[in-house]
Amino acid sequence: MIAAAAPPRAVIFDLDGTLADSRLDFAAIRREADVPDGIGLLEHIDGLDCPDARDRVAAIVDRHEMAGAEAATWIHGAEQVLHGLHHRGLPTAIVTRNSRAAAMRTMQRLLMPQMPLKAREDAPPKPDPSALLALAKDWELPPAEIAFVGDFHYDIEAAQRAGMIPMLFTAGVQPDTPAVGYLLLPVFERLLDWIDRGRVDAGA
């Protein structure tokens, strides 16, 4: 339960599927790039021995990501929660497995507030926690006081490995299994409610 935990002092977000709907068809990307099931796209690229093969698959992924960025729309409630966090003075950032070019194009298209961005060129991709820990260091905040919100198991694992508050955004869908080791965020409005409730309890 969100209400049972102390609210964060900063929030980091995943991009695709969390803040933005880029309509990426991952099944189509896998078919075109011949990526087997059970392995991430970036992990598959990293494991290819042939430089030409790596370049070919990377180019396919880049093309799909940029097309998705050009078509991106806000996830319901995401725009309001970002502006609400900025209004409340909480630091925010984005950590994504996307390329920096695609992520920046998405942010520009949606007129997102300015905030730090960590893309796959900046740090090892999630579930590696390096990008999350770098932001905690920049903000001079303990990782335990920062929430990381994402929609995929890579996001939850990265937050857990960083010692942050893992939050799974479900867009109103009830998961099939109980949440163990992370918090559920069915709708974005609950994040602001949680933070405001914590401030009232603290007398802020």
From TrEMBL:
<dbReference type="GO" id="GO:0016787">
    <property type="term" value="F:hydrolase activity"/>
</dbReference>
<dbReference type="InterPro" id="IPR036412">
    <property type="entry name" value="HAD-like_sf"/>
</dbReference>
<dbReference type="InterPro" id="IPR023214">
    <property type="entry name" value="HAD_sf"/>
</dbReference>
<dbReference type="Pfam" id="PF00702">
    <property type="entry name" value="Hydrolase"/>
</dbReference>
<keyword id="KW-0378">Hydrolase</keyword>
<dbReference type="InterPro" id="IPR006439">
    <property type="entry name" value="HAD-SF_hydro_IA"/>
</dbReference>
<protein>
    <submittedName>
        <fullName>HAD superfamily hydrolase (TIGR01509 family)/HAD superfamily hydrolase (TIGR01549 family)</fullName>
    </submittedName>
</protein>
